[in-house]
Structure formats: structure tokens, C-alpha cells
């Protein structure tokens, strides 16, 4: 049982420019910014009221976000739902026949446990659970 | 100034199947369903806690959603932010140089005034304001 939209992930080509755009155009606030060389990603979390926008940029072209940008261009990347019990959410998703990308929860860039469900199970929508 | 993520729009090929998927996999509730022949769209609003998912299906292949599905396949379509003053939100967006799809607010399928901002102004993200 999900408790709401936690954030929406957006792939961007220029992180600084995109942060400025969301701040200026929507009065949104930068919450935090983090770089993960292992995954080749630099992300910024933008508070928009209820729900955040996670801006995702690639630190290398062969990273997952780099490949996404090359294939689809910048734009919507994933939706994340808050869940109170991530182990149960994954068990339910598995029981329902959804294909999981993460069989077990792992630490995400928010500092919370996360797990992704494959977009082919959910009508083309890459979907994330975030433990809240 | 946006007050939060109001909903995320998702283009789907089969509306009934998609509603069932969100209900079963996430325990989400169908709020309402509406068909608009003028725009060639049938939509279902799914309550996920804070924030809704708007499932969008095409009633004809040459409708905007029909063309989107043909070009990109099913998946994430737009993000909508709640705003307390939609006229001001549009004025701010225009002043900031964003390209508006709707120069004036119009009645949306939620029964609220809405207006869309062109994705080319916002890093490929089709963005909607919803008066709340």
C-alpha cells in the first residue's frame, strides 16, 4: 500500500541550469544535492510542496542516466512512491507478478531504503518505492 | 509558487487493465473516470495517498495521447503542480520566459482550471498547473 507520490525523477542535461529553472519558475527549493560516482549520477532534490522533483544528471555517458539521455533525451524518468514497509511492498509486488529491478531494498541517495520495479511491469513507468 | 505535485500523467494503451494494475499492485483507489470525445481522451484518476496518478488513454489514434503512444509508447506523460492562483502562476511563467501551451486557464477533466507549459521550456517535461 503506497502512501503517496514521494518524488518524480527527471533526467536533465545540465544540473545547475535545471536547479535554477525550478527555483525561479516555480519558487521551489533545493533540498540537497549528491554525487555518486559509482552510479555515474549527480542528483538534486527540489522541494515543490508535497512531493519532490529529483533532477538526475549523468557524470559519464555510459551511466544509466547518460544512456537514458542519449536514447530518450531529457525529461520524465521515474515516479517514486512512499511506503511504510518497503519489504512488504516488495513482497506484494513480487506476489502480484511485477518484475523487480531490486530484489532487496538498498540505500538510496535520499538516505532512505529504496527499490525499483521494472517499467515493463508497469506500463512503461520506471517505479521506485522509498521507505518513509 | 507551486504547492506540491498534484498528479502525474501516464499514457496507457488499455485503461481498464491499467486501473486494475494500480489498484492491485499499489492498493490505490480509482477516484473518477471521464471521457472527452473532443480531445479524444479517456482518463482515470487514481488516488495514491498524497498526489494522484492520471491514467490517460486515447479514444482515437490521431488524438494527442494517441500520437504520444505511437511515438513514445506507454509511460510517463506529464507532471501537474497545484497552484493557489493559476492566473498568477501563468503570469510568472510568462514573465520568466516559459512557453505556454495555454495562454489562459481552461477547464480540465478534474473540474478545476488548468494550463499547460510547453515541455521545451522545462527540459522536456510537459508541465501542468492545476488551480487548487
Structure report:
- The structure is a homodimer of 132-residue chains.
- Chain A has 132 residues and is α+β, with helices and mostly antiparallel strands.
- Helices cover 23% and strands 40% of the residues of chain A.
- Chain A is built from 3 helices and 8 strands, in the order βαβββαβαβββ.
- In chain A, strands 2-3-4-1-5-8-7-6 form an 8-stranded mixed β-sheet, with helices on both faces.
- The first copy, chain A, is globular and about 40 Å long.
- Chains A and B meet through strand 1, helix 1 and strand 5 of A and strand 1, helix 1 and strand 5 of B.
Strand percentage of chain A: 35-45%
Question: Which outline of chain A best applies?
Answer: globular
Structural class of chain A: alpha+beta
- Helical content of chain A stands at 10-25%
Largest inter-chain interface?
A-B, 41 and 40 residues
Quaternary organisation of the protein chains: homodimer
- Across the major sheet of chain A, the strand order is 2-3-4-1-5-8-7-6
Mean pLDDT over all positions of chain A: 93
Low-confidence segments of chain A: none
Number of discrete helical segments of chain A: 3
N-to-C span of chain A: 12 Å
Number of strands of chain A: 8
What's the alpha carbon Rg of chain A, rounded to whole Å? 15 Å
Give, in order, the helices and strands of chain A: EHEEEHEHEEE
Q: Mind describing the biggest β-sheet of chain A? A: 8 strands, mixed
Top keywords for this entry?
eight-stranded mixed sheet; 132 residues; alpha+beta; 23% helix; homodimer
Amino acid at each position: 500500500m503506497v502512501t503517496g507520490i514521494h518524488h518524480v525523477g527527471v533526467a536533465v542535461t545540465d544540473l545547475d541550469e535545471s536547479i535554477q529553472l525550478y527555483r525561479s519558475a516555480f519558487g521551489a527549493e533545493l533540498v540537497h544535492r549528491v554525487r555518486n560516482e559509482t552510479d555515474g549520477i549527480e542528483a538534486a532534490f527540489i522541494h515543490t510542496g508535497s512531493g519532490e522533483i529529483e533532477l538526475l544528471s549523468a557524470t559519464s555517458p555510459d551511466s544509466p542516466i547518460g544512456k537514458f539521455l542519449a536514447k530518450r533525451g531529457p525529461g520524465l524518468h521515474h515516479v517514486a512512491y512512499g511506503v511504510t514497509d518497503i519489504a512488504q511492498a516488495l513482497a506484494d509486488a513480487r506476489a502480484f507478478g511485477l518484475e523487480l529491478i531490486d530484489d532487496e531494498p538498498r540505500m538510496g541517495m535520499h538516505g532512505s531504503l529504496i527499490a525499483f520495479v521494472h517499467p515493463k511491469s508497469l506500463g512503461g513507468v520506471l517505479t521506485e518505492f522509498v521507505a518513509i
